[in-house]
Specification:
Distance between the termini: 28 Å
Oligomer: single chain
Number of helices: 5
Number of domains: 1
Order of helices and strands: EHHHEEEHEHEE
Strand content: 35-45%
Length: 150
């Protein structure tokens, strides 16, 4: 596996990975309606691409296939961290997260972790700041605001 910077040519593949991962891996913690609100099948790829270009964004690649991606804001907000549904529990998320955490000078890294991702972040030393219910596309979703102080 190699980890490299995101490129605009990665846009469609990362969007597909995001959709597939949310709709399979998160199915045990979120209803179909919640997953549809979180990850719509149709995505504005221009906005998706622009959001990656506005942050430090990395992709993990194996055999010319993107198996994970992550992005972080300069202020330490870890926005997205997703691993392909067929490549879970192989250290990809940890490798991406390591790179993200080291890439910014902020005094803390923050994340809004899904119920599914909560154990991963707890294991990495993140602490729950608060349990939240967010309203997205007409549906309520639970997540956790978490922080890792340095």
């Amino acid at each position: 596996m190699i980890i490299r910077p995101y490129r605009p040519a990665d846009c469609l593949e990362t969007a597909a990975l995001f959709y597939q991962t949310v709709h399979t891996i998160n199915a045990k913690d979120y209803s179909a309606r919640q997953r549809d609100a979180w990850a719509k099948k149709q995505r504005d790829l221009t906005l998706w691409n622009r959001s990656f270009l506005n942050h430090l964004s990395l992709v993990a690649v194996e055999n010319k296939t993107i198996v994970g991606f992550a992005d972080i804001h300069k202020d330490g907000y870890l926005d997205r961290l997703y691993v392909h549904k067929d490549h879970q529990r192989r250290g990809i998320a940890a490798a991406l997260c390591d790179r993200m955490e080291k890439s910014v000078l902020a005094p803390a890294i923050t994340v809004h972790a899904s119920v599914t991702a909560l154990p991963f972040f707890l294991k990495r030393g993140y602490r729950i700041q608060k349990r939240q219910t967010v309203f997205r596309n007409g549906v309520f979703l639970t997540n956790y605001r978490m922080e890792k102080r340095r």
